[in-house]
Write a structure and sequence with these properties.
alpha+beta; 102 residues
């Protein structure tokens, strides 16, 4: 199942760090997100973009997770030549991930 069918995402940035939220539409889907959307999966998904560590923070009471991606924005907004220097499209790219159905 594609993540975008069960969750939405937002992106933020600071320097060369991208911050991606992943929020379940329905709290009953959160355990699947927590089980399958791991640091390893996210790091592999963004392997061509993110060159630093990926850290996951879980917020089960909110049915959400937060991923902090280091060295993700080509040096930061003021240094990057990327069209999406703020990395806003990374949240949409995260939702392209597929995880097993329940």
């Amino acid at each position: 199942m594609q993540l975008r069918k069960m969750a939405h995402s937002r992106a933020g940035d600071k320097g060369d760090i991208s911050n991606l939220s992943l929020i379940a539409y329905d709290s009953k889907d959160y355990p699947l997100l927590e089980k399958y959307v791991t640091v390893e999966l996210v790091k592999a998904h963004f392997a061509d973009i993110v060159f630093g560590d990926v850290v996951r923070y879980t917020l089960p009471e909110l049915g959400a997770m937060n991923f902090v991606l280091q060295k993700a924005l080509g040096g930061g907004v003021t240094r990057s030549l990327a069209l999406d220097a703020h990395g806003k499209c990374l949240s949409s790219a995260l939702l392209n991930l597929h995880i097993p159905d329940a």
